[in-house]
Amino acid sequence: MHFQWYPGHMTKAKRQMQEDMKLIDLVIELVDARIPFSSRNPDIDELAKQKARLILMNKADLANEDQTAAWTTYFKKQGCYVVKLDARTRTGMKNINDVVMEACKEKIERDRRRGIKNRPVRAMVVGIPNVGKSTFINTYAGKACTKTGNRPGVTKGKQWIRLNKNVELLDTPGILWPKFEDQRVGLLLALIGSIKDEILNIDELSLELISILKEKYAGVLLERYQVSEEQTPAEILGEIAKKRNCVKKGNELDYSKAAALVIEEFRSGRLGKITLEFPAE
Ligand code: G4P
């Protein structure tokens, strides 16, 4: 799903989020493990202050494991609980409930002191488009869930998914808007396929990807395309075009076709598990 954001949308999304925050104890924020910085909106720190925080590094199946570990440390230092995840499968899901309870232990303790027993923790899922929010809610809630609230005759309210006796989840995720105004953020979002391809210069995107691969993942381009990495990204793209027979009429090299091919192979994971940004940066 692709989104076009306008200032009006952002104001509305923010207002909605502020309202929803009043109802919950824990914010479950999904980020894309390949671009954990660019797939976030730092405004969430302000919106969710005073709430328990859990960051899910989703699509970890496509990201570099060492980098996922480094980002995990980075987010933990900021006071968030962190779990890496592939939301399409149950990998990483089984300990989420434990982490949710751990993240909310202060609230549970506060309740206990006030004599409130067994009040479920209420949580909400947030994230920018395409990070896997719906997939996560479906997998996490599974079939066992029962919806509460909004029953006929009952005061109109929010829909909650009762996950188990301890946790309730708001059934619609909060959508955060990406920080497009930062050009590099836009570029990385485009590389993972979260921004419409038509509005982008595919050649430029592929050159950025090649440059990251060349610098941080030595050997990947050589292995996949049998190209020398001791060249400029543009030369490498040209060589990939030759190797993969990307030619136009008149035998001219078709750079755009080669660019699209490299990007597609990255997105589908065929270039391996690749993270595009690093906490140290
Ligand atoms: P959203 O609600 O945050 O917008 O995201 P959504 O769940 O719709 O997921 C977006 C895409 O990401 C889906 O691909 C989904 O299958 C995929 N996805 C979600 N979690 C994971 C994960 O952990 N690993 C991988 N590899 N993919 C994941 P799609 O249905 O093919 O849609 P499209 O975006 O390709 O059109």
Structure notes:
There is one protein chain. With 281 residues, the chain is α/β, with parallel strands linked by helices. Helices cover 41% and strands 13% of the residues. The protein has 11 helices and 8 strands. Strands 1, 2, 3, 4, 5, 6, 7 and 8 form an 8-stranded mixed β-sheet that branches. The longest helix is centred in the N-terminal third of the chain and has 15 residues, at 7-21. The radius of gyration is 22 Å and the shape is elongated. It starts with 6 loop residues before the first helix and ends in a 14-residue tail after the last helix. The model is unreliable at 149-155 (pLDDT under 50). Guanosine-5',3'-tetraphosphate is lined by residues 1, 58-59, 61-62, 85-88, 127, 129-135.
Could you give a quick summary of the protein structure above?
The chain is of the alpha/beta class and 281 residues long.
List the bound ligands: guanosine-5',3'-tetraphosphate
Order of helices and strands: HEHEHEHHEHEEEEHHHHH
| Residues in β-strands, percent | 5-15%
Our measurement of the CA-to-CA distance between the termini, rounded to an integer number of angstroms, reads 29 Å
Number of helices: 11
What does the largest sheet look like? 8 strands, mixed
Kindly state the mean pLDDT as a whole number? Answer: 89
Q: Helix share of residues?
A: 40-55%
* Low-pLDDT ranges: 149-155
Radius of gyration: 22 Å
Quantity of strands, as a count: 8
